[in-house]
Structure formats: C-alpha cells, structure tokens
Write a structure and sequence with these properties.
alpha+beta, Beta Polymerase, domain 2, Methane Monooxygenase Hydroxylase, Chain G, domain 1, seven-stranded mixed β-sheet, 12 helices, 17% strand
Length: 351
C-alpha cells in the first residue's frame, strides 16, 4: 500500500501514516515555498512536488503549491505532475508578462503584477498562477509579499478553503490587490509633503527629480494594475469554466478594489502634476516680483542719473550753473522726484 493510499484522514500526519517515499528527497527544495494537500479545507499533509499529481487526482483533495523564482527543472517537474501547457510554463519561466488570463484546455493561467516600496521606489514583481482540477500553483518572481499570510489565514477557515482551487485563486488575487494600497499610502504621504511646501518656495532640482520619479513609478503601477481589471471581470462574469458562478461576487469585489486602486493612482498623478504647475507659477511669481523691484529701482535711479548727465556735458553756456542756489535746487528736484517715484511704486506693490 502506497503512502498516498494510507493518508486518508484529515487528522493524520504523513509521518504517522507511512515512511517518506524515496523520491521525495530535496530535489527542488530551494524553489518550493510550500506544497500542501487539503481535504475539505483541512491541510492533511505537506507533500513533495513529485507526489502532487497523484494527490490532485484524488476526489475532494486540492494541492496548493507555492514557488519562488523556480528554476527550469522545478517547473518541468510541476508541468509533468499537472500536464501544464508548454506556453504557460514558458511564460512563468520568463517572468516578463502583462497581467492576463489564458485558458489551456481544462487549466487556467493567470498573470498578475505585484508591487512593493523598496528604498522609496516602487519595485515590481510577477505572480503566475496555474489553476486546474484539484490543484493551484503560484509562481512568484521579483518584488512580492509571501502568500504565507494568505495560506495561514484561510487555513483557519476550512469552510471557505473547502470551496476549492478557484477560491484560493480569489484569495491570492485579493491579497495582491490589497498590497497595492500600502504602496499608494506611502506615496500619498510624500505627495502631501510636496503640497505643503510647494507654495512656500519653488521646487529645487532634487524636488523636481523626485516628482518626476514618482509620476513615472505611478504610471508603471497603473500599467501593471490596469489589465488586472479585465482579468477579474472575466473571472466574475462566469465565462471561465474553472470558476464556479457562486464565486462571481468575490471576483467582482476584487474588480472594485482594482478600480479603486486605479482611481487613487490617477488622483496622485494629477496632484503631482498640479504641484509641479503650482511650483512653476510660484517661481514665475517670485521672478516677476524681482523684475518689478529691479525695474522700480532702475526708474528711481534714472532721475538723478539723467539730471547728472545733463549737467555733466561740460557746455560753457549753461546759465543755471551761475545761480546762487542752483546746486540746492537740483538736489531738491532729485530727492523729490525719487521720493514721489518710490511712493508710487510702493503703493502699486512693486517695492
């Protein structure tokens, strides 16, 4: 009797039922985050990837495998266990895909982009999900939060987990979308800081470079999130045979969350654009104020300059030069003219 046949009760552990089969080993341990089998929502054993196909074919059992940046040998092993389509496996190997939903016979292949804040920049990753009868395999690449939290949470709710592999697909997608929010909240705090100081002074070069970086990262995030709306809509409208109609409301909820993320991204990008425009206007306003001050002082200084220039031409026949109070009169005219000009410029807000 094989080990697979002996583990039939949810309360039993693998070790208590039978010795480890020789093929388990540690062949793919480096890329395997978790590999478990569930019966009626209860995890009954941690299994080797080489055993996954046999477990998946048992009625009422679901195999959930989590992989992190697996090598070609590990993906080939998973492919053999579940007869995965070569094109889907190739996509999961390359890990440079847009969010999408593909059907390959009885199997479903979903790609979603993940995001995390790393050193004040948005780092992107990918998750590839294979869904079929009795199994679900998630393959993570790049920046991504571990789905261990998802697994631990739903293992406490066997009733929900017993709904099957399509429910696990929902749980993973919902977790991915929820993890967009901390990224946006972090950016939102920085955007608010920009708003607070944009009216105080024009942006410096460092501020402009940071603003450009944020807008570019938000655009990349929007491009990563946008196609996920179509993926979730297709999962919600019962056009995918691998997803039961009873789960349609859950995928509609994920769709709403994705749209909320899109709206928040668009809002942040608009605020950053307004902040940049406001900074330019503040800078132009300050430049205009400086130009007005310079022009006002130039006009004031033009009066004594002009008068001094007239009497500095050294003509012999200038009668007023002989006046007893000519010097005092000229100084009085200069001071009075400058004072009047200063008062007018001050009144008009140029000084």
């Amino acid at each position: 009797m094989s080990a697979v046949e002996r583990i039939v009760r949810p309360g039993e552990t693998r070790e208590a039922s039978s010795p480890k089969p020789p093929e388990r080993g540690h062949l793919h341990e480096a890329g395997v985050v978790a590999s478990s089998v569930y019966a009626h929502g209860v995890r009954i054993a941690d299994i080797a990837v080489e055993e996954a196909g046999e477990w998946a074919r048992k009625d009422g059992h679901v195999v959930w495998i989590g992989l992190l940046e697996p090598d070609a040998a590990l993906l080939a092993c998973v492919q053999r266990q579940f007869s995965l389509h070569p094109l889907a496996v190739e996509d999961a190997t390359n890990a440079h895909q847009r969010p999408k939903l593909e059907q390959y016979g009885d199997a479903l292949f979903v790609v979603a982009r993940t995001a995390q804040m790393v050193d004040k920049r948005i780092a992107f990753g990918e998750t590839h999900i294979f869904v079929g009868n009795g199994y679900i395999v998630s393959v993570r690449h790049g920046a991504s939060t571990s789905y261990k939290t998802v697994r631990q949470h739903w293992e406490t709710c066997p009733t929900s987990l017993a709904k099957g592999e399509d429910f696990i697909l929902y749980a993973i997608l919902d977790f991915i979308v929820d993890n967009y929010m901390p990224v946006l909240e972090s950016i939102h705090e920085e955007v608010e800081a920009f708003e607070d100081k944009v009216l105080e002074r024009p942006m410096g070069r460092a501020d402009i470079e940071r603003l450009y970086t944020l807008r570019r990262d938000l655009l990349r995030l929007r491009n990563a999130v946008g196609p996920l709306v179509d993926v979730c809509q297709r999962l919600a409208n019962a056009s995918v045979p691998q997803v039961r109609p009873t789960l349609a409301p859950m995928f509609r909820d994920v769709t709403d969350h994705v749209r909320t993320v899109q709206e928040k991204i668009d809002s942040l990008r608009e605020v950053l654009a307004f902040a940049f425009e406001a900074s330019l206007l503040v800078g132009q306003s300050q430049e205009n104020a400086i130009f007005k001050k310079l022009a006002a002082w130039a006009a004031i200084l033009a009066v004594p300059t002009a008068i001094a220039g007239v009497y500095g031409m050294n003509f012999k026949n200038m009668p007023e030069l002989e006046l007893q109070f000519g010097y005092h009169a000229v100084l009085t005219v200069i001071v009075t003219s400058c004072a009047v000009l200063y008062w007018r410029f001050r009144k008009n807000g140029w000084l």
